[in-house]
Amino acid sequence: MTEHHRDAALSPSEQATIRELLDADRRSTTDRIALLSRDRDEIVTSSALTASDDEHDPEGTSTAFERAHVQALLDQALTHLAELDLASERLRDGTYGICARCGRRIPIERLKVLPAIKTCVNCASRRRSR
User: What mean pLDDT do residues 2-15 have?
Assistant: First the structure.
């Protein structure tokens, strides 16, 4: 184990706090996925019952846009759910809170705000500035 990994260990109370945050985020994300899935299904059902000529139907383009928008939000929620699952795995195996890029500890304050995060602020900033 590297020096950074030894420094990265979370205290039992920090682990409990993070576990609760991950669980709460997972529940709200799962609820959001269910709601968005229902919305998408309603849009698809609604558009199947109406004319399928989007080009000449004044409502067709807005329906297509709405369907694409809901699908994008659903995709984001599914991606976030997968990130939460990976964060839970990292918490179980003791690698949670370690930056995936530099190997240093991610401050607990950052983890509390973004519990699925994999990078420290420095590495995230460098990635955005490219």
Answer: 68
Residue type, 123: C
Tens digit of pLDDT for each residue in 69-81? 999 999 999 999 9
State the burial class of residue 22 (Cβ atoms within 10 Å of its Cβ: 0-12, 13-18, 19+).
buried
Number of C-beta neighbours around residue 8 at 10 A: 19
Q: Estimate to the nearest angstrom the gap between the alpha carbon of 78 and the chain centroid.
A: 7
Q: How far apart are CA 13 and CA 33, in angstroms?
A: 30
Phi, psi of 129 (to 5 degrees): -80, -5
Tokens encoding 7: 């420094």
Whether pTM exceeds 0.85: no
Would you call 70 exposed, middle or buried from its count of C-beta atoms within 10 A (0-12, 13-18, 19+)? Answer: buried
CB atoms closer than 10 angstroms to residue 123: 17
